[in-house]
Amino acid sequence: VTTPVRSGMEFDMRISAQETSLGPFSLGRTAFSIMSTSGQTRIDIVDSEVENGRLTGQILAAEGGFDSGASFNLSIRDANLQALFQHLGIGGLPLAARGAIELSFDVDKPPLDMARRDAEGSIRLTTGAGSLADLDPATIRQRSEGQSSFPLRNPDGEDFNYRSLELAATFRKGTAEIQSARIAGENIEVL
């Protein structure tokens, strides 16, 4: 497939759709534009519904066009995060909450051919009240002392209901590294 950048064609197209998809996600009431000018191609997601929340963002083709890779900057607001993670096949974060995600990553292959392990970037997640299944904050705190990696789930623990959660992580080659995290519950705050 020849991308507009490689063909030399320039255009600016604006599209509205009742339903569309972006990877594993079904999007509703979407407005987006596709623009190719001066050797640069990008897709702007002006507005869209995803998992009962809103999605906006930009996908910028690499210098050689989408065949050479892309940069993604996506912002999701007030969405069902548990459903989002299930669509992505991410089972390691047992999160039940509505919240926001700021996601920025690059791939060096065509976006339609990429797998999660091909992406390198960062994620910032914030939620209001929610629940983490099978997690006990005291156990997490104990495990985290002096260790750079440890299992989050506590098979003997109960669900941890919290008031707020903030998490920032980087990811590369299929592995995420938490840069900062804050979970505030009724009687405990884990940093």
Please explain how this structure is put together.
Helices cover 10% and strands 60% of the residues. With 191 residues, the chain is mainly β. Strands 1-2-3-4-5-6-7-8-9-10 form a ten-stranded antiparallel sheet. A hairpin with a 2-residue loop joins β2 (25-37) and β3. It is elongated. Residues 1-5 have low confidence and may be disordered.
What is the compact description of this entry?
Helices cover 10% and strands 60% of the residues. The protein is mainly beta. Strands 1-2-3-4-5-6-7-8-9-10 form a 10-stranded antiparallel beta sheet.
Contiguous runs where pLDDT drops below 50 for at least 5 residues: 1-5
Describe the main β-sheet briefly: 10 strands, antiparallel
Please estimate the helix content.
Answer: 10-25%
Q: How many individual helices?
A: 3
Radius of gyration over C-alpha positions, nearest whole angstrom: 19 Å
Series of secondary-structure elements, N-terminal to C-terminal: HEEEEEHEEHEEE
Distance between the termini: 48 Å
Estimate the strand proportion.
over 45%
Strands in their spatial order, largest beta sheet: 1-2-3-4-5-6-7-8-9-10
Question: Can you give the mean pLDDT?
Answer: 85
Structural class: mainly beta
What is the 3D shape?
elongated
How many DSSP E strands? Answer: 10
